[in-house]
Amino acid sequence: MVIFRRLLGDVLRSQRMRKGLTLRQVSADARVSLGYISEVERGQKEASSELLASICMALDVPLSEILSEVSDAVALEEAALAMQLESMEKSLDLADEARPGGDVVASAA
Amino acid sequence: MVIFRRLLGDVLRSQRMRKGLTLRQVSADARVSLGYISEVERGQKEASSELLASICMALDVPLSEILSEVSDAVALEEAALAMQLESMEKSLDLADEARPGGDVVASAA
């Protein structure tokens, strides 16, 4: 399961770094407590839509750009999860083939 | 100020409609109360990241696709807001030019 707030936090943090801003500056500009913004960046708290808009204004980055970056990060994670799942299914298939008459043994038990 | 939850709600609703699903079906599949999903679609409640993931699974649409659509909708709204602001500024400039010696009157008051 891909968790939106975690990737949103990553994108917000990397945008802040790119702008050379401190948490304290963004907190003051966005009028949000330092602790809250810090938790949002670490993906530990959901950001309300109003807070998200304030942070975007403080970072001087359009919300659409933030969301587009989050969408890209989510897509990468979805692809990685799909590959993981596929290789797990392959391993199960191989284990099944390697077991001689596996189903018969199972039904005899 | 562009409010994320409103545009997210619009996108979730339109995706549900496209799939021909009822609120009740999504609510059952995502194991979320009907009232909550309905409020999320109307942009009245923030969806937690876990709820968002469950709704996406129930809709069988990747989260990245939902976010990409929301990003596009937000970009349109940002552009509309920028145009509105520009035309307001132009009107103010015109009003300023039309007022003879506006600044002098203001400072004399």
Notes on the structure:
Chain A has 109 residues and is mainly α. Chain A has a single domain, classed as 434 Repressor (Amino-terminal Domain) (Orthogonal Bundle). The first copy, chain A, contains six helices and no strands. The longest helix of chain A is centred in the last third of the chain and has 36 residues, at 63-98. The radius of gyration of chain A is 22 Å and the shape is elongated. The mean pLDDT of chain A is 92. The A-B interface holds A 1-6, 46, 48-50, 52-53, 62-65, 67-68, 70-72, 74-75, 78 and B 1-6, 46, 48-50, 52-53, 62-65, 67-68, 70-72, 74-75, 78.
Could you tell me the CATH topology label of chain A: 434 Repressor (Amino-terminal Domain)
- What fraction of residues of chain A sit in β-strands? under 5%
Most extensive chain interface and residues per partner: A-B, 24 and 24 residues
Distance between the termini of chain A: 36 Å
- CATH class descriptor name of chain A: Mainly Alpha
CATH architectural category of chain A = Orthogonal Bundle
Helix content of chain A: over 70%
* Number of domain units of chain A: 1
Rg value of chain A: 22 Å
Q: Quaternary state, please?
A: homodimer
